[in-house]
Amino acid sequence: MTAIKISSKVDEAAWNELRDLARETKRNVSGLLSEAVEEYLARRRVRPDVLRHLEDSMRENEELGKLLAQ
Predict the structure, then answer these.
(1) pLDDT, position 42
(2) Could you give the CA distance from residue 35 to residue 58 in angstroms, rounded to a whole number?
(3) CA–CA separation, 65 vs 49, rounded Å?
(4) pLDDT digits (tens, 9 = 90+) for 11-53
(5) What are the distances in angstroms from CA 59 to CA 11, 15, 19, 67?
(6) The pLDDT of residue 3 is above 80
(7) pLDDT (0 to 100) of residue 61
(8) Distance between CA 49 and CA 28 in Å, rounded?
C-alpha cells in the first residue's frame, strides 16, 4: 500500500494521548493514525448498509410486527 503524507490539526490533549499510546504499545503515531482512519471509515460505511437491511426487514415483516404488538 502506498502511503501519502498529510497535515492536520488535532487537540493538544488528544495528540499527547496518542503519543503516549504509541510509546506504550511500541508503535509509531503514523501507524496508529492509519489504523484509526481505517476503522472510522469501516464504521461509517457499514452503518448505512446495516440500516438499509434493518429497514428492509421491518418492511418485509410488518404484519408479523403488528401481530406481536397485540
Answers:
(1) 84
(2) 34
(3) 22
(4) 999 999 999 999 999 999 999 999 999 999 988 876 778 888 9
(5) 44, 45, 48, 14
(6) yes
(7) 92
(8) 33
Residues 59 and 35: their CA atoms lie apart, in Å, by 36
Would you state the cell numbers that stand for residue 2, as one nine-digit string? 502506498
Tell me which residue has cell 397485540.
Answer: 70
| 19 vs 32: CA distance, rounded Å | 9
The H-assigned helical ranges of the chain are 12-24, 29-60, 62-69
Task: Report the SS3 class of residue 8.
Answer: coil
The grid coordinates listed for 9 are: 490539526
CB proximity list for 58: less than 8 A, separation 6 or greater: 65
Q: Could you tell me the sign of the dihedral formed by the alpha carbons of 8, 45, 27, 15, in that order?
A: positive
